[in-house]
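Sharing a chain and its predicted structure for anyone who wants a worked example. Both blocks are below, sequence first, tokens second.
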Amino acid sequence: MIHLALPPDDPQIRVVDSFEALANAPFEDGVNGFCWPRELVGDFAEIVRLLGEGEGIVTLEEHRLAQLQASPSGREAIEVLLEDQRRLLARELDPALNLVYSALHDERSGPIATDVFSFHVDSAPVEAETWLCTYSGAPSEGLLNTQATRRVDHAETRAELLRNYGGKDDAGFLAFLTEQHYDLHYAPNPGAQPFCFGMGHLWRVAVDWPGSRVPPFIHRAPAEHPGPSPRLLLIA
């Protein structure tokens, strides 16, 4: 089990002791991330082994999990996966259980990569939030907002983007940054200390949407992935 490794005494993140507290805690007063630490039962690595080799990102349906010839410990893990999905479905969310063999890197030339391996925030046109949990493989990573700067606000990066845009630093340029998702990506400040989301812990983090009262939560897929073991994770 990879343990939770939060920054000490940080006012941005709150740790809670139940799903109900996680689901109902308000995003306010600068708090933009909630975590419910858990010691889960079951052998999640067995589930990954039984699912076998694959490519890209595979969304796992309940019927496929039910067909696995799992050990009792494996069956316990499957029940945890399904129960987490049921909890989120009951809140009218759209959870997906993904087995990530590999994720696409942004191979375009330019100063900002816009893939999941870059520190970024999620965005939505309406009120939204992101839920995350890693069950097997390398966990997600977070970065405090106070330890990061938007890449588009770096002078050299912005100048290169402006050259690529071919115009003035005006409303059209701002729209270009949004359309290309450049404005969602962040660079760690000197001395920044990214932290691990841990294994089995359920997170609920803030999203960039009109009307949000807190900054969006900065996170990324683990830099060392893809690795020898696929990632088994829940996202909603």
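Comments welcome. Residues 13-109+116-144+192-235 form one domain.
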